Amino acid sequence: MTSITIRNLEDDIKQRLRVRAALHGRSMEEEARDILRRVLAEAEPPRHLAAAIRSRLSPVG
Question: In this structure, is residue 21 part of a structural domain?
Answer without folding.
Answer: yes
